[in-house]
Amino acid sequence: MTAHDDNDLWIRRFHPAPEADTRLVCLPHAGGSASFYFPVSRALSPGLEVLAVQYPGRQDRRTERCLDSIAELADAVAAALLPWTDKPLAFFGHSMGATLAFEVALRLEQRGIVASAVFASGRRAPSRDREEWVHLEDDAGLIREIGALGGSEAQVLQDEELLRTVLPAIRADYKAVETYRCQPGPPLSCPIYALVGDSDPKASIDEAQAWKRHTTGEFELRTYPGGHFYLIEQASSVIATIVEKMAETPTARR
């Protein structure tokens, strides 16, 4: 039996569910934190045990160096998840978290640990590049971007002191995702389910459909009403989709 450390800096288990067959690893968006997934964990427990990932540089890790590379983040998250692979892992990532989920799943598959599924939310496929340079904007430009997208971080715009503390993490995340380029290599073999808002300025339906080329397994695209943070208003529908697809998915090969 693998030892689990609930004091691990990277992994937050808000609602332990020892009877669950599968764990769902949830990866936050740029500027996001593990607590974004607390309601998801509560809703899915005890059928699925949620492991929410906490990146350095925010909340209780705010004094740590931010990582501004998807590759570096993926290496660290994959290593942190190894003690949790005594049960099959599925992944849910939103925006930057979707790209990171893909890269972590690739790293684990290279070790012979095949994910049960990857849910890629609010993000274009890794093979679909855009030239984006928000991370090079001044603070005012970065704040405008956060405000335009809405989401859980928009509320910090009203608190100048809090804003100053979170901007370095947001900038590092934007640099990580904007400088990311998918490297040539084999696709995943697990199912990929792409989820996207029908008016998301950061991921068109066509760009989300392109996730299909990144797996040899099942693929499905689901669209929801809304923009980049569609999943906040559509939370119940998204959670129902996760439950539905996980019920259909056989446990991963390990």
TrEMBL record:
It comes from the Bacteria. Coiled coil: none annotated. Residues 25-247 form the Thioesterase TesA-like domain. Keywords: Hydrolase. One of its GO terms (molecular function) is hydrolase activity. GO terms for biological process: lipid biosynthetic process. Belongs to the thioesterase family. This is Thioesterase involved in non-ribosomal peptide biosynthesis.
